[in-house]
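Notebook entry, cofactor series.
This is the third protein in the set we're modelling with a bound small molecule. For this one the ligand is adenosine-5'-triphosphate. I'm keeping the input format identical across the series so the outputs can be compared line by line later. Sequence and SMILES below, as received.
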Amino acid sequence: MAVLEKGNITIHTENIFPIIKKSLYTDHEIFLRELISNAVDAISKRKMAAFASDGAQEVPDPQITLVVDKANKTLSITDNGIGMTVDEVKKYINQVAFSSAEEFIEKFQKSANDLIGHFGLGFYSAFMVSQKVEIDTLSYQEGAQAVHWSCDGSPEFELTDSDRQQVGTTVTLTLLDDEQEYLEAGRIRQLVKTYSDFMAVPIRFEGETLNKQRAIWKESPQNLTKEDYLEFYRYLYPFQEDPLLWVHLNTDYPFLLNGILYFPKLRPDVDVSKGQIKLFCNQVFVSDHCEEVIPEFLMPLRGVIDSPDIPLNVSRSALTNHRTVRRIADYIAKKVGDRLKSLYDENPEEYLKCWEDIGTFVKFGSLREDKFKQQVEDLLLYRTTYKAEVTEPKVEVLTEDGDAWSDAQQDDGVNPYEKEGYTSLKRYLARNKERHENRVFYCTDQSTQATYVELYKNQGIEVLFMDSFIDTNYFIPFLEKEYSDVKFSRVDSELDQSLIEEDKASDIVDPATNKSRSEQIKEIFEKALNNPNINIKTQSLKSDDPQSTPPAMVLLPEAMRRLQEMTAMMQQQAMAFPEQHVLAINTNHPLIQNILSLSQGSIVTGSGESPSAELAKSLCQHVYDLALMAQKGFDAEGMKGFIERSNAVLTRLTKQ
Ligand SMILES: Nc1ncnc2c1ncn2[C@@H]1O[C@H](COP(=O)(O)OP(=O)(O)OP(=O)(O)O)[C@@H](O)[C@H]1O
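Returned structure with ligand:
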């Protein structure tokens, strides 16, 4: 074996080997990713060369083979790629590879462990785990001489002839004593799965192919089926529910970017602050966390993004401010918005199916990013008490920026979302302009606010259900800021003028006391409840059938309730029922009128109140209990009291 050359590798840093070995401590495992990537590159170069020679050269099926030799403590990576000539080894290994390693180390030393992918150390990363690295290679070029390069981790190398017959390269690592884990089959499999799963060349080890190879995000969306996307998702996130929808990113200008982002079905126990999107660079896995590249509000998404234009050897903080990265983030947000818009326009059924799950996400995005908000503004849906009937005439919406609605109209002229009981805010406001301009009535809890909703519905007033956490705590205040004329009132905050009529009871004055009936009712209740925190108001609810309206309702004024909600949220507690609240007594209701008569008919005796006055008092209490129950239900103590009082009332009523 002729020694072709012995020499020193030219390096400028004192000696990079100790640095490679020690400083890159945490990430030793990436050596395999780097060597496999080189092998894949060599294979595609060979393909290109064959292509250029118009098929004059035959190219074998591409393959990378990993072999472990435990006795000799070696791990080798063999490819049937382009190979290297002596001159190429001298140039690419001794010079190029080293100088890029040097550059990398310089950067690395500056930003320590902060680098996102530890990319670009390339071939020399092999020295992190090896006491000796050998290259055995034969170039594809005709008449090339196979060469053997060997280096023991000092800047000295040796280059000799080799008797290799097959075109390609084998890199053999004699592992350091404390790096023996890389002789374990399980570890090798795990590394290939993690980093090189989507490399387009089969990676063979102990008789099997370890990698999946197919990177569908690099393929054209036209060639992919729904099943392809689902299968890929299930592969990336096994044992998870299927995603709701996905966006295929595919651009080559002004940066190269491919990827697929999925909207998962969010489970409450998933921590969405930790991104689950995988970052790749030319199909090589880089990181599970790419918070710096993805806009924060897109963090709940899953999937893959792959871009060689994301700089990987800068610190994470530098990455956030990097111009290309910011543009990529904007691009991704825009594409997500576009996808939602097209689904909204083209497939209302599918959009609605997803809405309950993606609604929070879309709202959060709107809160966070103005551009995104503008994009999805008209796609935000609210469940409503209004339901468009197919026979109804089309609602004309006059919005400043045109009728964004028309695209979603269907043949029958009825908005498909309204047919299903959903509306946009714009449509709600337009529809109710005549009756309550710029007022939105909403409900946050369908069961505890059912009485109120019913009351509004019966009077033909439309109520929106805004019952998610984000609605009550963030989104309503946000919408009020955005649309400064619009005010939101929860159905139980006050009784809108349109629900009440002139209180006849206030006109009827009792000559004996000089008090109106309303004042008397108020007094009876005040006395019976004897609680200064309850502000009693008398009002007359509009209805053709007063018996069907509630006799009394507990009201929590909007501003006061919101303040309490906010305080509770900041203290991370559930909001306690406000001590101070309004009790609106419906003077129109027969029960209230009966209580008044009962109370007036009572004779005050010397020893206290007459039985009918006492009954009236108990009934007042009962009316209040029922109003409270309709508002919030009872706690244990409240329930006990309520049952006791109810039994007492019933006993009294059945006494005769
Ligand atoms: N298996 C191989 N077959 C053929 N040539 C190789 C092989 N491995 C390395 N080389 C050559 O050595 C050069 C240096 O490799 P190295 O991995 O250090 O850097 P790189 O691949 O050019 O860049 P990167 O920093 O992205 O890894 C390569 O550009 C290539 O020309």
